[in-house]
Design brief:
This protein has 115 residues and is of the alpha+beta class. The chain has one domain: Winged helix-like DNA-binding domain superfamily/Winged helix DNA-binding domain (Arc Repressor Mutant, subunit A, Orthogonal Bundle). 55% of the residues lie in helices and 12% in strands. It is globular, with a radius of gyration of 17 Å. The two termini are 26 Å apart. 12% of the residues are buried.
Length: 115
């Protein structure tokens, strides 16, 4: 049996905020476009089919939450994932949802999950 990591109340709030931000499909698509090479706002907007102003709003929130980081090159700002922790979390969850659904474990079915 593994031991759950202990975190402070402030860290729990920060983590919950990160998951809340990633719970928005548009913001999640913005993050997914930043998985590869650094990318600029206009390219993110094109790939996600969102307006540049909405993409900029999402980017501001994602940077504040330390999910993405920005790097200025000349007149443009390029965005990428903040670090390998974020990259691993996102890529692992993408792989998870891409797996075929398995039969529900009867023990897991007894657990009530609050929505």
């Amino acid at each position: 049996m593994s031991v759950s990591p202990s975190i402070t109340d402030d860290q729990a709030i920060e983590l919950a905020d990160m998951f809340r931000l990633l719970g928005d499909p548009s913001r999640l698509r913005v993050v997914l476009t930043c998985l590869g090479a650094p990318i600029c706002v206009s390219d993110i907007a094109t790939l996600t089919r969102l307006s540049p102003s909405l993409v900029s709003h999402h980017l501001r929130l994602l940077r504040a939450a330390r999910i993405l980081r920005a790097e200025r090159l000349g007149k443009q700002v390029f965005y990428t994932l903040a670090d390998h922790h974020v990259r691993c979390t996102i890529t692992d969850m993408v792989a998870h949802v891409a797996e075929p659904a398995e039969t529900i474990d009867t023990d897991a079915a007894d657990v009530n999950v609050a929505a």
